[in-house]
Amino acid sequence: MKIVHITFGFKLGGLETMLVNIVNEQVKSNNVSLLLINDLVDEALLAKLSPKIKVLNCRRTAKSRSLIPVIRLNAYLLRLHPDVIHVHAPKVVSLLMPFFMKKVVYTIHDVTIGKQYLKQYKHSYSIAECVRKDMLERTGIDAPVVYNGIKVDSIKTKSKYMVGNPFRIVQISRLDHKKKGQDILIKAIDLIHKRGGADISLDIIGEGDSYDFLQELIHSLNLDNIVNLCGAREYSWIQEHLRDYDLLVQPSIFEGFGLTVAEGMAAKIPVLVSDIDGPMEIIDNGKYGYYFKKGDIEDCANMIYKVMNTDNADLVQKAWKHVNENFSIARTANSYIEKYRELLK
Predict the structure, then answer these.
(1) CA 262 to chain centre
(2) Please, which residues have CB within 8 angstroms of residue 211's CB and are 6 or more apart in sequence?
(3) What does DSSP assign to residue 61?
(4) Which fold has domain 152-326?
């Protein structure tokens, strides 16, 4: 089967990391190409792709209205002659020739995606049940679920659960506090610090527009020696070092899924999430992880205390098994192949 995946940029992020994993899995038994529209490309991420994957770049400048990259995009597709065109950004549909539309599928990667383009896709898939519900309620589109996946076996696992000194907390995502809620977590750390009696540290891994805001917040709360903005890390670093932490916290305000939550569970460390649909779906409403009320600083702090004072060895073993059975990248890639075959009948 000839499969072409299309996305705009290719910088470090959850969607892009997942896409690398999917195409690397699919190319084991299919002809797979990756078509990039914009010239925003991370070379280190590109190097993670299998050499069997053909990568084509339309070299469009972000937000450009030039028709040349659009012509190049459609020319590439005519040359590749794919059986399936798998799109990962809603606006792509507006750039494609009508001739291709019968071959196009679209993955909805988040809740609250604007509905301007969605109804132009004949076949759409949701990354989680909460995304499917959101689409159905807002647009009337019923997009079946194909869960996001991770390379569970490539993530090194924690084996010793003696709490370190300090108790090391990690948060991994784009620095976008209005969505990802890093400010909530920082304020919860401040509350714990002011209460005294807890030796903790927080590493925030990622980059984005909220860097200056978060740095100023950390400084204003005198947390410079406790909270660290670490910048982006390559996925290989995450795979190796996630196990070094004692807790992963994902304090998002809204989220379609939450790959880092699944990765924390795969590393066999406890996870704490805000009680929003996507992350709660991953931890099965508290069966495989902890949760706090969205936006509630005190509840977040209290739950961190609880994790610190609980023997989590049994929980993390069950969580690892749950992720392995439900959110592996092999399962995700194969599920898409099954959906493609239905499309081609």
Answers:
(1) 9
(2) 175, 229
(3) P
(4) Rossmann fold (3.40.50)
